[in-house]
Design goal:
The chain has 428 residues and is an all-alpha fold. It has 21 helices and no strands. Helix content is 79%, strand content 0%.
Length: 428
């Protein structure tokens, strides 16, 4: 079976409405059978991949994100951000970017970030006479920082497929993430002055101190997670476990957003989300195994070499492909479909896999807010009870900014690689 037929079948399954994990899993099973491989090897392959320590971090970060989303952590961060930047014109929108950046450094999920911050700030902005489409655009775009600012679930999945270092990937996302936040802030300040959005009243000194002290437990989570990883005290998986434990304690005891009777329900929701992610990963790993064992990887590499493409040309092609796929597929689906296919080509063209992880992650950010399927658009529409067209209208300027950032990050790899190379030395 040719790779084109296999990819065609995959898209047929998706158009039939099959979930991505069933589409990938069934296709991998079909390919195993077609190539004459013993089907007993299929479940054995899945079991072998279960022995990944990195995979264990995913459910733990999901638990942390769920408890922080529901436990009052977001509200504490919003108040803290408002205390520092709320006095600027368009202050609530600036608060949104700052709060999303900090929340992203805690949970690793774009959807959780958009829901947690948006449910508080969208009504607040609309009440202060901000245009609805602008409010939705700010939250939707800022929410995407959840998969770029470390820790990131998308980067963990990438690390599993590409067999890369998670700490390196996390560090690589820091500078691009801060650049994205800074560009958003610049646009918001310009637009807010143009529209003459209100300036929030100054916070009294006593209230200022109270709000900042209240946010300290929430701000300690990224310190514990990232500080623990880069100090060498804990592994990524152990850091995820600490994040989950601290998030549960803060959500139930400190901020009390999750009542004692809701703990089991919240854990169950986390497990459901984790299961869907893990099943997708298993299907993708099996699909990737077939690509290698059937010689498809070598065939694709030879084909690309025959075209005499330079690395920059291939990156341009892949960016366009992922932008198109992002209009129709969700984040993990794109990573797990595209990465196994192009991984050998990236190595053959000597494209740094850590740098490409950031390129791919920014593409996935764009996918989250790209019509017609962008998940964050539907989340925002539901949270704000506004038509999805309103969200799309508001997201357009931020989409342009992110496309510019994508071009810069793609062709200046030093931006992504500076911190990883500084801390760990150049990759061999």
């Amino acid at each position: 079976m040719t790779p084109f037929v296999a990819i065609g079948l995959l898209f047929v399954f998706l158009m039939m409405g099959l979930p991505i994990y069933l589409s990938l899993g069934f296709l991998a099973l079909l390919l195993f059978w077609h190539e004459g491989s013993p089907l007993i090897a299929f479940p054995q392959l899945i079991v072998d991949h279960l022995n990944s320590e990195t995979l264990i971090a995913i459910p733990l970060f999901v638990i942390a994100a769920t408890f922080m989303q529901r436990g009052g952590v977001a509200h504490a961060l919003i108040e803290c951000a408002q205390a520092w930047v709320g006095r600027a014109r368009g202050g609530l929108a600036l608060v949104c970017v700052v709060a999303c950046t900090i929340f992203a450094a805690i949970c690793g999920s774009s959807v959780a970030t958009a829901v947690a911050i948006g449910s508080v700030l969208i009504p607040a902005m609309v009440a202060r006479k901000y245009e609805s489409h602008f409010a939705l655009g700010v939250v939707g775009a800022s929410g995407t920082l959840g998969i770029l600012i470390p820790p990131s679930l998308a980067m963990i999945v990438y690390a599993v497929i590409a067999e890369e270092s998670v700490p390196r990937l996390f560090l690589a996302g820091v500078i691009p993430g801060l650049m994205q936040a800074a560009l958003f802030v610049a646009w918001i300040m310009f637009y807010s002055r143009h529209k003459n959005y209100p300036i929030e009243p100054a916070m009294e000194r006593e209230r200022f101190v109270q709000v900042n002290l209240h946010a300290v437990p929430a701000l300690m989570i990224p310190v514990i997670v990232l500080g623990g990883i880069y100090s060498g005290i804990v592994t990524v998986t152990e850091a995820a476990g600490l994040a989950a434990l601290v998030a549960i304690i803060e959500g139930t005891i400190i901020y009390r957003g999750v009542k004692a009777g809701e703990v089991v329900e919240t854990l169950a929701d986390s497990i459901k989300l984790t299961a869907s992610i893990v099943f997708i990963i298993f299907g993708a790993l099996a699909f990737g195994h077939w690509i290698t064992s059937a010689g498809i990887a070598e065939m694709l590499v030879n084909y690309v070499k025959s075209l005499n493409l330079a690395a920059w040309q291939f990156l341009l092609f892949i960016n366009i492909l992922m932008l198109i796929l992002g209009m129709f597929l969700e984040v993990f689906a794109i990573i797990l479909i595209v990465l196994p296919l192009i991984l050998p080509i990236l190595k053959a063209l000597d494209i740094n896999l850590v740098h490409f992880a950031i390129v791919m992650t920014i593409n996935m950010e764009i996918a989250l807010i790209s019509p017609p399927i962008g998940l964050n658009l539907f989340v925002l529409s539901s949270v704000a009870k506004q038509p999805i067209g309103t969200a799309i209208r508001g997201i357009v300027p931020f989409l342009v900014i992110m496309l510019i950032l994508l071009g810069v990050i793609t062709y200046i790899p030093e931006i992504s690689l500076f911190l990883p190379d500084l801390v760990y030395g150049p990759a061999k």
